[in-house]
Write a structure and sequence with these properties.
The chain is mostly helical. It contains twelve helices and two strands. The longest helix is centred in the C-terminal third of the chain and has 41 residues. It is elongated, with a radius of gyration of 39 Å.
Length: about 300
């Protein structure tokens, strides 16, 4: 065997003894053309990685904006509930008001929106506007400042979200009802009625809001407010799953309020007639007359006949 054949044999033998190498001799790689692929200069390593894992990154980073808003507002509501439990009514009210300002206002009808948009274009920035509320019994928030021109789009988007997403309506109803509870504790009866009414715009059958509005109206103690209180108690009586204690209060109110309404009605009529008489005497006095010269007697038609007597 020649020297070259011997070298050839040793090379093949060595190759066959290793399982990780091929028995076919490799070609000279230096003879193959080299192709170089480079990324654009403007593309960073992070961008290249994002191209490879784009769908995963997209799902990780995108969140529901409404859920984010609700999470922020829930923290304010929880803080208000804690302050309410500590009997710090005013601080609790402030927390609920702050949370309400984060929420979009109740959506308007198409005609109302057009009217509002027209006034904004003219430079008028003013505009009108399983429940777990966290307080056992259970504001009307201050009027919000109108959106500036640069915030108008954001305001419109929020209004649309309010109309479409029941989570925001539910949260706004709860916050307004909690505010009403604070107003009752602070003995601000009118604001309690207004806050309860705001809550009922989002949830007309909200038991606690109806109850608090009835309580506030009864405290106002006018003929109209007492009648409104009775109407709310009657509505409550038709709702399902009422607590026994509330049902008892409703029955007592239904028995108590009709007499109070009648008494208040007569009292207000008498007060009104006294005011009219005073006004009449002021005018007639210039002619040497008074309302005592005029007599009113009921007639068969249910009206009154007037006669003049010296």
């Amino acid at each position: 065997m020649s020297s070259s054949d011997s070298d050839r044999f040793e090379e093949l033998s060595s190759s066959s003894s290793s399982s990780s190498q091929s028995t076919i001799p490799k070609s000279n790689s230096s003879k193959l053309p080299t192709i170089s692929i480079s990324k654009p200069e403007s593309q960073t390593d992070e961008e290249e990685e994002e191209e490879e894992e784009g769908s995963l990154i997209f799902h990780d980073t995108v969140t529901d904006p409404i859920e984010h808003l609700i999470s922020s507002i829930e923290k304010l509501k929880t803080n208000g509930n804690l302050q309410f439990s500590r009997r710090d009514w005013q601080k609790a009210l402030n927390s609920y008001n702050e949370a309400l300002l984060e929420l979009p206002p109740i959506g308007k009808s198409h005609d109302e929106s057009e009217t509002q948009n027209t006034s904004l274009s003219l430079g008028n920035e003013g505009f009108s506007d399983d429940r777990n509320d966290g307080i056992n019994d259970e504001t009307h928030h201050e009027p919000r400042q109108g959106p500036s021109n640069e915030n108008k789009l954001d305001h419109q988007i929020k209004s649309e979200q309010s109309n479409l997403d029941p989570r925001l309506c539910n949260l706004r109803a709860t916050l307004n009802a909690n505010s009403a509870a604070c107003h009752l504790k602070l003995e601000d009866w009118k604001s309690a009625v207004e806050a309860s009414t705001a809550s009922l715009r989002d949830d007309p059958a909200y038991q606690k809001a109806l109850h608090r509005r009835a309580q506030g109206n009864e405290k106002l103690d006018t003929w109209a407010s007492l009648q409104a209180a009775l109407d709310d108690y009657n509505t409550l009586a038709n709702l399902p799953d009422l607590p026994v204690s509330l049902l008892k209060e409703i029955r007592l109110a239904q028995a108590r309020l009709p007499l109070l309404i009648s008494e208040r009605s007569e009292k207000e009529k008498a007060e009104m007639m006294d005011k009219l008489k005073t006004l009449g005497n002021t005018v007639l006095g210039k002619f040497g007359l008074s309302t005592d010269h005029f007599k009113f007697t009921p007639n068969e038609t249910g009206g009154y006949s007037m006669s003049f007597e010296r």
